[in-house]
């Protein structure tokens, strides 16, 4: 449980990424992940 923000997003437990990363991934299509 990261915090109230995570609960608000109602994201799956598998997706334990930062809000910024998640927001970008959710808004933009699954492009070539530069990791």
Structural account:
- The protein is mostly helical.
- Helix content is 43%, strand content 0%.
- It has two helices and no strands.
- It has helices at residues 4-9, 19-27.
Give the N-to-C terminal Cα separation. 24 Å
Q: Please bin the fraction of helical residues.
A: 40-55%
Relative strand content: under 5%
Largest sheet: none
Radius of gyration: 10 Å
User: In terms of structural class, how would the helical and strand content be classed?
Assistant: mainly alpha
Helix count, per DSSP?
2
* Series of secondary-structure elements, N-terminal to C-terminal: HH
**How many extended strands?**
0
Mean pLDDT: 58
Low-confidence stretches: none
Shape: elongated
Region (Disordered): 1-35
Biased composition (Polar residues): 26-35
Biased composition (Basic and acidic residues): 14-25
Helices and strands, with pairings:
Blueprint: H1 4-9, H2 19-27
Question: Gist?
Answer:
The protein is mainly alpha-helical. Helices cover 43% and strands 0% of the residues. Residues 14-25 have a biased composition (Basic and acidic residues).
Note the main attributes of this structure:
35 residues; mainly alpha; 2 helices; 43% helix; 0% strand; elongated
